[in-house]
Specification:
This protein is an alpha+beta fold and 85 residues long. It contains 2 helices and 3 strands, in the order E-H-H-E-E. The protein starts with 6 loop residues before the first strand and ends in a 5-residue tail after the last strand.
Length: 85
């Protein structure tokens, strides 16, 4: 690691492959545009916003894995097949 400063060690987090493929900049921009419309229309206050993940629980998945990656890319999510309940 000391001889190769372009490499770094991170802890990978698993994400379902279909979610990774669907996360395009166009989809994300559309989501936040629609969210902004709803927040303005219903006058939702900041203290009334919550982060909720409806993907369920991963069965039999390893919590985290250490990996060495190119520091310039910096993607910490690892694609996995869907197996949520």
């Amino acid at each position: 690691m000391q001889r190769h400063p372009e490499l770094t060690s991170i802890t990978l987090q698993s994400i379902e492959s279909s979610r990774l493929k669907a996360a395009t900049s166009e989809h994300l921009q559309q989501y936040f545009d629609e969210l902004e419309k709803v927040v303005v229309e219903y006058k939702i206050l900041l203290e009334n916003k919550y982060n909720i993940d409806e993907s369920g629980f991963a069965i039999g998945e390893i919590e985290a894995t250490k990996c060495i990656i190119n520091a310039n890319i910096w993607q910490q999510f690892q694609s996995k097949p869907g197996r949520q309940e």
